Amino acid sequence: MRPWHDGVNALAAAIPLSAPVYLLMDLVGNPIPFVLGWFGGGSVRFTKGVPPPVESQLLAYVLVAMLGYVGTRKLVPKIKVYTLRRGISGKDLGKRGTSLADKDVPEALGIVPGAVFLICLTFCLVGYATTNPSKLLDCNSALLSICFMLFLGFSDDVLEWPWRYKLLLPTVASLPLLCCYDGSTSIVVPIPMRSWLMNEGSLTTFGWLLGHIVTVDQNANGAILNLGMLYLVYMGMLAVFCTNAINIYAGINGLEAGQSFIIGCAVLLHNLIEIRDNEAYRENHLFSIMIMLSFVGVTLGLLGHNWYPASVFVGDTYCYFAGMTFAVVGILGHFSKTLLLFFIPQVLNFLW
Amino acid sequence: MRPWHDGVNALAAAIPLSAPVYLLMDLVGNPIPFVLGWFGGGSVRFTKGVPPPVESQLLAYVLVAMLGYVGTRKLVPKIKVYTLRRGISGKDLGKRGTSLADKDVPEALGIVPGAVFLICLTFCLVGYATTNPSKLLDCNSALLSICFMLFLGFSDDVLEWPWRYKLLLPTVASLPLLCCYDGSTSIVVPIPMRSWLMNEGSLTTFGWLLGHIVTVDQNANGAILNLGMLYLVYMGMLAVFCTNAINIYAGINGLEAGQSFIIGCAVLLHNLIEIRDNEAYRENHLFSIMIMLSFVGVTLGLLGHNWYPASVFVGDTYCYFAGMTFAVVGILGHFSKTLLLFFIPQVLNFLW
């Protein structure tokens, strides 16, 4: 390992992060009045019951994410002593033939970013509770689902569950999320398929049959299908898919954390663009940004230790935690279909 | 071990449970119309937005608790194979001199009642979401705090954290609870101490000094102190105390689970009496009953395996999980001061 490796790696990590950071700086502009506003000074005033300005929220989330990065970065070397002592470790097959091949690499270090992430989000939750209680329920259920998966992932690393538990428990873990989902359950039908449902203002036979399971919006001339409960089932399956998707590409140094980092940056970029261009769903995207910023922060902190030559392995703990985090932002940010676009490599691997 | 031991143990377990069960049967009366009501029949009808009748809720919680009991009872022998394989086990010092002394006893089996409990409550949460959304936030934050403690407890059993983490993390885990607390932050001042605060309708010097930290209600003539933020701090400390309180008396077969079982039954009895006699805070006590019934169910399932001669140890996992559960019902059920009465042996040991 040569010293300039670190510089190259830092540069590589900066590439996916550059676009969201640029947009963030563009959105926030001059941060000083908002920072002053937190301490009761400056021109930005807070009113109880009214959410603070977007810029102020973004700045606070960035700050929490930075603390998350530093915390993970510093804690991983400390905690790896504990997992190594317990024998939760593996051999790195990618280092065969080198002098590092026989060294035990501590496993399941995903517990550190996971725990730091939970702590970060708990502080965001406190912020929500004091300024913007309308999103408190979403934030709670998001944390609950992620915490449940973190627990499941860590116990899987330690005890190695059989497959039936691994499929059953994520489904249960996603239930709180679905209970709190209050968004639309409708989907827009692609234009060429609309004529299958409606023809000259009346339902076709296929549309009539389909009408027994879902609601075809006859006013929209077949353009909108309200899936109702089926949409919730789809979202539950999305959660199970996401938790396993990160695990699909696993086993190479830095691959789990690396792909999560890139997907996280992509989601962040999507949210920031939506906030800039679209007033309507701003709150949902801000919520997603809150979660994603902390997530990207802790992932980056982990990546530094997990990159080749890895000094720690992330384990199922990290894969489950990361997957559930993406499912949570997709569902509660109301962009669960867009989310799947970011998962194309994993979807392809899954379908193969 | 003789076969009549099982019978004696079952009888011993039935004693603390008898009073709550009697009160439950008294409250519910004839269950048939309510059970029929769940399936859309019978004379009991549900209206959307209106909470279902108390009897119907109680019956549903009893059913969930029974499933929790059966699930824990069946799963513990299966899961103990996994923890034993990983070497998470200990020697039982209470069996020295017997033929069982050298046998490894699997540790950290509190993970089973914990996970079953979370699943039970998730289903209760789904029930809440569909019938009584006003308590959804409470239920989510309760589950979040308990899940966080379960995760912390299990990772402590596996990795053996130093003390500083064990004090810091329960504090963070209790934050979501405090954020969602919307009850009173006032306390009633005992009669002999009221004259210290107010004298002939005006504040005394002591009362005036105290008024800088808390709010003295001058209309109530010193009878009521509004502690505000201090009350939240007290509740946060209660959570930390409870999580460690069960651990104070630990180390003898069945002691952790046994004391939790008895405290659980006592809390249940308190709630049931309040529901019978007092209309005002019925919803909070029902919420507490929901949590406590599932908790008593899974604890009883565990106790069967943990009673002398124990075939499993419960570990810190169970102690933390049980303690946080009590803190949660105390805080969200708004009887945090009464709760401490049930913890008198632990408080004495703590102060000693």
Automatic annotation (TrEMBL), chains A, B:
Its EC number is 2.7.8.15. It comes from the Eukaryota. InterPro entries: Glycosyl_transferase_4, GPT. It is a multi-pass membrane protein. GO terms for molecular function: glycosyltransferase activity; metal ion binding; UDP-N-acetylglucosamine-dolichyl-phosphate N-acetylglucosaminephosphotransferase activity. Pfam families: Glycos_transf_4. Its cofactor is Mg(2+). It is found in: Endoplasmic reticulum membrane. The chain crosses the membrane at residues 7-25, 58-76, 108-129, 231-251, 257-273, 285-308, 320-344. Its main location: endoplasmic reticulum. CDD domains: GT_GPT_euk (cd06855). Keywords: Endoplasmic reticulum, Glycosyltransferase, Magnesium, Membrane, Metal-binding, Transferase, Transmembrane, Transmembrane helix. Pathway: Protein modification; protein glycosylation. One of its GO terms (biological process) is dolichol-linked oligosaccharide biosynthetic process. GO terms for cellular component: endoplasmic reticulum membrane. It catalyses: a di-trans,poly-cis-dolichyl phosphate + UDP-N-acetyl-alpha-D-glucosamine = an N-acetyl-alpha-D-glucosaminyl-diphospho-di-trans,poly-cis-dolichol + UMP. UDP-N-acetylglucosamine--dolichyl-phosphate N-acetylglucosaminephosphotransferase that operates in the biosynthetic pathway of dolichol-linked oligosaccharides, the glycan precursors employed in protein asparagine (N)-glycosylation. The assembly of dolichol-linked oligosaccharides begins on the cytosolic side of the endoplasmic reticulum membrane and finishes in its lumen. The sequential addition of sugars to dolichol pyrophosphate produces dolichol-linked oligosaccharides containing fourteen sugars, including two GlcNAcs, nine mannoses and three glucoses. Belongs to the glycosyltransferase 4 family. This is UDP-N-acetylglucosamine--dolichyl-phosphate N-acetylglucosaminephosphotransferase. It comes from Attheya septentrionalis.
